[in-house]
Amino acid sequence: MTKKSFIFSPQTLQKIGGVSQLSYGIRVFIALCGAMALSWSIDKIDWVIPLFLGVIASALAETEDGWQARVRTLLITLVLFLLTAFGVQALMPYPWAFGSCLAVVAFSLTMTGALGRHYSVIAQATLILAVYTMIGLNQATHEMPIWYEPALLTLGALWYGILSIIWAALFVHVTLRQALSSLYVEIGLYLKLKSKFFPPPSSAAVDTLRLELAQQHGQVVVALNKVREILVSRIGSSPGNPRLGRYIRFYFIAQSIHERASSSHYNYADLADTFFHSDILFRLQRQLSESGTSCRKIGEAIRGEHAIDLRDSEEAVAGVLKSMAYLEREAQPVQWRLFRSLRQLTDNVVGLQQELDKIPKLEDESLTDASVQIPQPRVTLRSIWAQITDQFTPKSQVFRHAVRMSIALTCGYAIIQNVDIDVGYWVLLTTLFVCLPTFGSTRKRLYERIAGTVVGLVAAWCLITLFPMQPVQLVLTVVAGVVFFVTRTNRYVLATAAITLMVICCFNQVSDGYDVILPRLIDTLIGSTISWLAVFFILPDWSYRQLPMTFAEGMRRSAEYLRELMRFYQEDSVDEQVYRRSRRRAYNADALLTSTLVNMQQEPGHYRTDTELWQRLVIRSHTLFNYIAAFSAHRGKLIEQPSNRILAEASAYIVKSLEDIAQCLEDKHLVTFNLAVFEEWQAKLEVGAAEEDERHYFVQSQLQSLFDQLKEVRRLTHELQLQVHGDKLKTIS
């Protein structure tokens, strides 16, 4: 057996560059080693701390743009860092002025989150650098020049920023590949969950499964939005790039697969009862499961840029077609009633496989109309100002978080000034990392931060005792810094332990590291307590208050989505961009509703009001959304038939009913529930259904299913309003 030697080739380098967390760790490793080498070579070991902190702040501010956009982002970041560091240096001797400016700056920077995650990341890193500056000035053993701390912090930030730009230029599409890979993996998980509906589980397990499906649907939507955000930034800088054209096709295929996967056709329980003695539902289950596996393989192939094997899902869909062909020949008369519904379901599954089959054939292609396919937002100073000012309301989560962060940091600073705490500015640093927009996320981060700090302090005490040699401790510092950045997204306890170890080792180079172990723990506990109190008492974001408006937005967006989908069945020409925009809004609204419910379930018991009823309502809402999404799988203009008018009126009624629910929730009017109206519409749709062609039959059966779901949504909303508000609700006259 021969041993293969490792060859460091351009292809190997590309694979390393394509592994997101690994490449992140490599950049941080190079940056920290460079900073340490500079300090060591010029015999300025006390430079290590500010240079390292500058590197960390810059790495935390790193965005997912292309290298051209990263140049602009780095310039903005460096200007903010310099202004912040010099501002802290100038105002530190004047506590009242410093506290006032801290409150204003914290609020202003947090409000930039209204512009999107891109700016929120830079703002957060700027606040972190401000605290790093305070820590550095507070720990200075002798008077330093005014430029010392700001210059070294900014130098560290510049050094990492240059590495980030070079990396982005060498591995142009690494971030996009990572995002696409994650997207296909999430879709694969969604398909795996969807396959559990065939044959349907017991009635007791259906709601649990539907809630899991709704939550995973939210993860897919987040992944879709991330890919779209990266594509928008790439199209602006290199719209004609052939590789980019291929990745845009990957994105659109993922959208189509997700839309087909999220579709629901007829009632699965009825299909299971009717075709109980057939293997068709088991074959559908296998096909959806294998499609999920294929999506995961596609994700892995995109990440590593290797061949894609879809044979298993192709064999599974062939089995579905054989089973359908047998049923068509041998089906009993009682089964023919639902055979067309079953055929529509299998057609959707076959269509899903056809979308998958397009992927191995994709090639690089220049798309001169890329900006038309994914429209670029028009950015002006006026539009930026409008985005921010639109959020100046207590209803805005960004505004509430900005107020909360401003007050929390100011209170932390007041405690530092009035209580004798060693290295007290770690209180502010803990607050910045722990205080998050929602109570559930803050509580989780609080526990993780405290646990990680304790583990890190124990590890630091052991390691600096066992290895008192300076070179070993510097190596530990670099390794801990890399571990922090590699794990901070998915394993925050380990990340906190690593950064704590790094801090203690750094301080041990310029003073006694043992002296900061206890202050670090005390400051972490104080900062965590401030964060918990802030998120609990300052404009609290209790999800039960947000759910009615979030649900109303979901109903409105679903109505808009259905209206645009029905145009495909009623009109010769439909604006594809308008349809895509309505689809994206509907998917985002549905995902937000589910995440709001999940947040409520993480909140204190007395704030989890009517959880069971809300859960049932969210499940029904998501199921209704799934039935709407099915119209996308079979869209095409209906041929002229007498029933067209009834179908158009029925769909218009559903749209109007969804909008009425939204309006009633917003105006705090009681949602009415009249069972006779639904029965009347379903009777109208039933007339003549058997004689219609396939597309008419599909529209008719889907509208009937929508009426079933709408009936439950209105009933549950009516019940919830009466339970929560009772006689305080107004009725529409």
In round numbers, the mean pLDDT is: 83
Structural class: mainly alpha
Give the strand tally: 0
List the secondary-structure elements in sequence, H or E. HHHHHHHHHHHHHHHHHHHHHHHHHHHH
Q: Considering DSSP H and I runs of 4 or more, what fraction of the residues is helical?
A: over 70%
What are the segments in which pLDDT stays under 50 over at least 5 consecutive residues? 1-19
What count of helical segments does DSSP give? 28
What amount of the residues lies in strands? under 5%
> Main sheet?
none
N- to C-terminal distance = 86 Å
Family: Belongs to the YccS/YhfK family.
Protein name: TIGR01666 family membrane protein
Membrane topology: Multi-pass membrane protein
Transmembrane segments: 21-39, 45-61, 73-90, 96-114, 121-137, 157-176, 423-439, 492-511, 517-539
Written account of the structure:
The protein is mainly α. Helices cover 76% and strands 0% of the residues. It is built from 28 helices and no strands. It has helices at residues 10-17, 20-41, 48-60, 67-91, 95-111, 117-139, 148-170, 174-195, 203-237, 242-261, 268-274, 280-304, 311-330, 333-358, 370-373, 381-389, 397-418, 426-434, 439-466, 470-487, 492-510, 517-537, 543-570, 576-601, 611-629, 644-667, 675-686, 694-725. It is elongated. The N and C termini lie far apart (86 Å). It is a multi-pass membrane protein.
What key phrases describe this protein's structure?
mainly alpha, disordered N terminus, 733 residues
